[in-house]
Fold each of these.
Amino acid sequence: MADFHCGYVAGRYRDGALSDTWTDVTRCAERTFLAYVARCGCGWLGDPQPANPDGYYTCQHELISTHLSSCAGGTLAGLHPTVARRHARGS
Ligand SMILES: [Zn+2]
């Protein structure tokens, strides 16, 4: 297990697999994913959320407030660039 933090929002595919760091789940076709799950390079996983914009936001919030704030000093340094951009825009 890697011990660096690279958090992002993954999508859970119908076969149960999770998307990788480079997949921007918000750009995938509707119903590609059963759920969104906040995920981190260190192996941390958040709770599954609905695969919609609200679910994405919930994952992002969970990742930052629950995970990164407790183990990465409360900074956004551990956030994947696509998530950090989205977070900065406040969406
Ligand atoms: Zn982590």
Note: The chain has one domain: 7-89.
Amino acid sequence: MGAHTVGRAHSAASGFDGKWTRDSFAFNNAFYAELIDTSNEWDQIPSPTQSANANSNANGFPQWSNAGGDGGLMMLNADMSLVMAMEHRGSDGRPHIDEATGEVRCRWRDFTLRATEICDAEDSLSIVEEYARDNQGFLEDFAGAWTKVVTLNQRDLHRVDVAAFRDARVDIAVPTPTSSPTVLIRLTEPLNSAEPSALCCAAKRAPNWNGRCWGATSKATCDAVQPPTKRCEWRPSECRATQTCSLRDVDCESNTECCSERCRSDTKQCS
Ligand code: HEM
């Protein structure tokens, strides 16, 4: 959800309207900081009704506004639910959130604008607080998670020339990257050396074990893939930056999808 630090909602698209942060072009932890800034006094308001657009909320599904501030920011229920336990029951015994309408009957802590129940904190609050404190930590975690989202079990990834993706518009200053971009490598191109995140574990002469071996990213975890006999081997000279076949227990349709080269016919999962 931290990606909501950039961009905005459009009334003609989703039916919601507004930005989550002041600078919607800066990718940072501002989304988390705004969420827990009690001076925002987040309050729920109806979103603009766009009944002409099939994708919008014709019934005006509500969004949140920083009513204690200038009202210039917005949050969705999905955003607020990172800090507020909307599913908990209020003093009337009903859940705070009405799932049919999106109406939430409690408010985030320190809400003083009108009498209302204060919601319990959601379990994820501590993570929101950590990211709001630690921008670098958030950026690093996001980069790791996003890389996983776009590469996991994607076969046949190709090396790309990042220059081709630079914004060529003259009115936008394109920053020069300070570090080398992460390059995705196909299985046919081994890395030269073991990198901390590289997959260097391979099966010894046992095709059906390869799936188990490939999940390991360190010698210790490679060695730990065990019975019935030790079949996985740490091979730094064959490290890969990304895995392009499916590991054990991942859904599959054919043998070729699996690192183990075996898609079980009963469970339809890689062995
Ligand atoms: C429960 C999860 C999520 C919900 C309900 C949700 C909902 C929405 C909605 C309603 C919009 C406004 C669309 C519009 O009106 O144009 C939006 C925009 C956006 N979302 Fe999410 N989102 C979720 C998760 C995510 C995740 C996981 C990411 C990325 C990692 C993401 C990235 C974005 C971005 C960048 C925009 C701005 C798009 C723009 O500026 O046009 N969202 N989201």
Note: Confidence is low (pLDDT under 50) at residues 50-58, 179-194.
Amino acid sequence: MIDRRTNAPIPTPTPPTGVRRDDGLDCEICGARMQERSCKITCRNCGFTRDCSDP
Ligand SMILES: [Zn+2]
């Protein structure tokens, strides 16, 4: 039995690197994604919290 495997390309999801929006929702401590909630932006990674009214 001849097992001919097709050299099919593996679908690898490539996120658009380089495209980064500066929306101020990145933790300045660890760089993780922050979550805004009731005018409080909290980092779910390190727990850093900042006010949304801060520049
Ligand atoms: Zn953080």
Note: Strands lie at 34-37, 40-43, 49-51.
